[in-house]
DNA sequence: GGAGCGACATAAGCGTCCGTGATGGCGAGT
DNA sequence: ACTCGCCATCACGGACGCTTATGTCGCTCC
């Protein structure tokens, strides 16, 4: 299970072709074929169907492991390179859409900043692999419980903002008048599925813990990142949305009712490589310092 | 960053010797020396001091990454081997001490069971690497929030028991009469540090979120796994202990007061490899089925 | 239905890299 | 100062991996 072999394996699966993968990796087709053969003989089972080229069930499993492994390998290399690299003068920040608020943006240094807008799950990856010097991720969690992030590498997370959650309903919705809502009241409702702009529904499903049969039916799916659009969709009755309170307010036709049970908050966290090389100075420290104040 | 090189690297660090590592790995000393040299030249910085052999700061970082990487590699191999291996007839269960209760033990099949008592953090590792077919881990978390486990491999976790938490105090303690306790009332108290038997203090520290200055000073450290002993120590005034309510009761001289804030529970979860090869039958399924009932 | 073509498998050749054994340098203990 | 233990370096032999070339299979086109 040489990383080289794994790298070609994932490339072959991604491109669904040995020859394409060979071109992509700068190998000959023969080499790719031998790589796959080596993996299959090492593990003792077929990983791919040929014609069409697609992973077998075992291959699917390997794909998960290989992805994590290669990611971690990149992260390790990036982490070690920080020891030798020249101190950064510019700052690359990876951020999920909802993590960018007036407050967090204000903390960015005036110059030399590149902002990478990424989906939530890519932010830790970007920081780990060194594509970004710091990350801002948002998500929901129990109060004073850190966000649940994939641990691709040792990262240190510190909360920089915390806000109540609100359910966005059309004004005329029967529940719109309530002072607060319980999630249990809403299990049978139709929800907007907006992984990029809103709060991910699968997280709610996990919190609720109920069987897959009931609860949190996705309705319209929205893959944009604009919260205002999401609120507009909710106002139009296309489904409910869950947003941080401040983002949920101020849209005509939409009412935001805060969520009271389960006790969850929308939190934004700053992500930096852990065990930080004592960078008491530099753009990252400057940014972190301003955020904590 | 070949895994072979990483494996030699961690071995060298563990044994603090090139020659010992060579013997351990079945290489010559020369090969080990070259492995380390290759790593160092690849990464462009020294990883070890020689005489004595010890990791540099950069080497320490690499060690973390290498450990995770090699673990994940073993997990991947073990996971893939499940596809080819013969269906299990016996059952190996890894369990943290507090996860073993009358209820969980009763769910074990009558015969063919090997029980591995492991510290909490080793349980997921054992399941991932195939040393165990299933795991039982306990820990504390917010209600209806999964336990926070290191993700060495895709594992599926399902709650099998949940219990309130209790603080164990000497009978004569000023707070012993209270109906319930808040953690905030106890930040300045002295705690028993019992990572194996009790609830880990560092988790509390994280939940409390306070600066390292205040809070949760460890007193006596107890590395045994017996909760009764822990309660006896608490009764003797050597420090407070946090235990699941049932384990905290019934020790003369000790009073158990349940914890009311923050809202945390002691939960035990069953761990099995995720994406399970549809084992509707077999010892693992039998065990899981009995636990869920 | 046969020829052609695209795509993966297999075979042979060759360079490179890896591990061995021998030797050298260096520090610590006697 | 000598010696022993330990790591570094060197030179060599073999194995492994990649390339070129060729084989085989399946699909498509006429």
From TrEMBL, chains A, B:
Protein origin, superkingdom: Bacteria
Keyword Transcription regulation carried by entry: yes
Residue span(s) of domain HTH lysR-type: 1-56
InterPro entries reported in the protein's UniProt record: LysR_HTH_N (IPR000847), LysR_subst-bd (IPR005119), WH-like_DNA-bd_sf (IPR036388), WH_DNA-bd_sf (IPR036390)
Family statement: Belongs to the LysR transcriptional regulatory family.
PANTHER family xref list: HTH-TYPE TRANSCRIPTIONAL REGULATOR, HTH-TYPE TRANSCRIPTIONAL REGULATOR CYSL
Name of protein: DNA-binding transcriptional LysR family regulator
